[in-house]
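Final report, closing paragraph on structural work. Over the funding period we assembled a curated collection of sequence-structure pairs, and we close with a single example.
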Amino acid sequence: MLRSLRFKLPALFLLGVVLSGLISTLIAIRFFQSYTRTRAIAELRSESVGIVQLYARQAGAQEVPVDKLQAAIGGDHIFYVPIQPGVQLFTGRVPTLPRTAIPEENLKGGKPATLNLTIDGKKYIAVVQPLKLIDQLFGAMVVAKPVSQLRSRWVTLAERLALAFGGGVVVAGLLGVYVTRRLTDPLVQLSSAADEVATGHYDVELPEPRGSDEIAQLTDRFGQMTSKLAESEQQSRNFLMSVSHELRTPLTAIRGHVSALREGVFDDPAAREGSLDVIGEEALRLERLVGDVLDLAKLDAHRFTVLQEEVDMEQLCERAFTAFGEEARRRSIDYRREFHAHPVIVTDGDRVLQIISNLLSNAFRWTPEGGRVELELSAENGLVSVAVADTGPGIRDDERDRIFRPFWSRDGGGTGLGLAIANELAMALGGRIALESDPGRGSRFELVLPAKS
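Its predicted structure, as stored:
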């Protein structure tokens, strides 16, 4: 519990608020103390000057009444420090201080001085004002405030700040818990979902995204990841099923013919030769299937080597076109070629032939009997393009990205490797495959390569 974000986040948030509040409170109290002392000293100076001026106005006429002194200083304390013994300056009793209580330089300096005094065990902040008449120093007036009076002011402030600080801590704590729960609850749900995904269950319940913050983005990416993982696993299953079927079919044919040859079923030399031809064709079929899988693995691992040689694209396209001529005749497909250029480029001829053959194989696979397949070669603007068009069912918009993924097939047949390998090979050769399709009318795949000569 103490190591979880649900505890750490509000604890750190609250600790930050507490530290900030304490520092702010200490600074405020310290500033208020300084302000209070400065203002008290200013008031004491003003009062001491007022007393001296009051004495100066009434000196020589009468003694200054003590009640007037008290009115001049308000609620502060006054003390008299005599220098001329026996001289009565005030009517009434004014507390006196011994001359030794005040430093000599503050008595004879002629200017007000600020002192910290201790009188009868109580601490005061005081201003000493020399008392003169016709340049003769009679004594000094001391106007003082108890330090406890100043302390009571900032203590009151501290109490109010502490009350506000406590309320702020409570509000900050509640806010921290609320924000933390909004952050951690989706993370806890995502963690549980990740555990489910780790066990192979991809149909998991994800938290409802709130707004467009980082948690919502993480949830969205997690959902995309689970979808891709589910799709990948489905593709793997399809691959295993299709590859198993593709491997089993030729192996079954080869085993059957081998058994028949061993048992002497075929007495006619022509029949035996035909059986051997079937074995050879099925062996080539197995070789192509294994080669496709190996090619895809090499492309994914970036361990694919591309040769550089001069390639006559017209001859290469003619070779690819001829390879499907028999299938076109057998299925009554209108099979055409249009070569508008005669480019010679530097590339890997075998791989280009493999790409075009895969595109033609895909076209014949989806073109119905009596349909049309076209092979077109052209070159312009420094690019060479080989296009394969068919009159098959076309490709829907939601399938355009999937058809180039490994092991994906629209009808679940085949290995789903032909177009994936063609696309990867095209990019390895520095080109690309473009797709144009009209659902219900056919598709057009175009291999575009740089015309390096």
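The first strand starts at residue 64 and ends at 65. Residues 5-58 form the longest helix (54 residues). We thank the funder for supporting this effort.
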